[in-house]
Design a protein that fits this description.
The chain has 193 residues and is mainly alpha-helical. It has a single domain (4-188), classed as Orthogonal Bundle (hpI Integrase, Chain A). It has 10 helices and 4 strands; from the N terminus they run ββααααββαααααα. The protein has helices at 20-30, 37-50, 54-57, 62-65, 90-97, 118-131, 139-154, 157-164, 169-176, 178-188, and strands at 4-5, 11-12, 70-74, 81-85. Strands 1-2 form a two-stranded antiparallel sheet. Strands 3-4 form a two-stranded antiparallel ribbon. It starts with a strand and ends in a 5-residue tail after the last helix.
């Protein structure tokens, strides 16, 4: 579910980052970006902190987020309105948007006349993943990471299902990789003799 293709056109099973260390490692390699490291890190932080799809993230403008703890968005895929909470990353947003015009795209392309594409966002993440020796990271990794950690912290699959606009809890669990983890944990100490 939510697999993607790599640079060679091969299908890859995109996974969430399951530990704080994995998240911090990704932030560290994104900070090494030759161009727009600050933009790339914020892109990742917005993704893992909000659970938005990449198509909605790249279209954000400065006025959508500057000085706000939350905002409403009509999601591109589902066309449903959702409130997005930014409390956890408000300081990073404030630092990044300082001096930017409120009409600017938050994740502007190098030319500055538009936003980065979803393909460019994918390249940013996979280039970082390559430095980590990982082949299971793509743009869905951010959304899956949000969901995985939200569920681990709250165990509230119903709310997460609503945030993701999924029609069934099993879809949400499978999407964030919880089903495999739960099975593995139940079998970890399972012994018949």
């Amino acid at each position: 579910m939510a697999n993607t293709t790599d640079k060679k056109g091969m299908m890859i099973d995109v996974q969430p980052l399951r530990t704080s260390k994995e998240i911090l490692d990704m932030i560290e390699v994104l900070n090494l970006s030759k161009n727009n490291a600050e933009r790339n890190v914020l892109l990742f932080k917005v993704g893992i902190s909000t659970g938005l799809r990449i198509g909605d993230i790249v279209k954000l403008k400065v006025f959508d987020v500057k000085g706000k703890s939350s905002f409403k968005i009509r999601e591109g895929k589902t066309k449903k309105e959702r409130t997005v909470h930014l409390n956890a990353i408000m300081p990073e947003i404030a630092d990044y948007t300082e001096g930017l015009n409120i009409e600017d795209y938050l994740f502007a392309s190098r030319k500055g006349d538009s936003h980065i594409s979803t393909i460019q966002a994918y390249r940013i993440l996979t280039d970082g993943a390559e430095l980590l020796g990982r082949k299971d990271i793509g743009t869905h990794t951010m959304r899956k990471t949000f969901g995985y950690h939200y569920y681990k912290k709250t165990h509230d699959i119903v709310t997460l299902m609503n945030i993701f606009n999924h029609s069934d809890q099993s879809i949400t669990k499978r999407y964030i990789g919880i089903t495999e983890d739960e099975v593995a944990n139940t079998l970890k100490d399972f012994r018949l003799f």
